[in-house]
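Extended Data, panel c. Modelled sequence:
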Amino acid sequence: MHSSLPACPDEHWKLLTSEIQSAGKELLGVTKKGKRIEKETWYWTKEVQSAVREKKQGLKRWKAERSEVTRAQYVTAKSEAKRAVSIAKAAASQKLGRKEHLSDCSIKSCCSGTSIENATG
């Protein structure tokens, strides 16, 4: 065993954790509490807002009733909200000149049938 290490396991553990924490602070830095950056909502439209509101209401109904009918309504609303967000993001990206959205779009129904050439042309 190394001579500079403490004999007690608890002291060894404290030394190890403090070294790991100091290395993490040195490498990654420290954030300040309460300094959250707001998420971008450059694509937020009335259609997106309405779809998300309907999805949230559907979830609340499903949690309250726990029936298959309300679950199916929630799943449909969730899918529609997802589609509305992806379409709004694509439209806003094209407006802002962000063509990379089409190349890395993770929702296939959003940009299916659309190519980068069509968007730039």
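Residues 113-121 have pLDDT under 50 and may be disordered. This feature is highlighted in the accompanying rendering.
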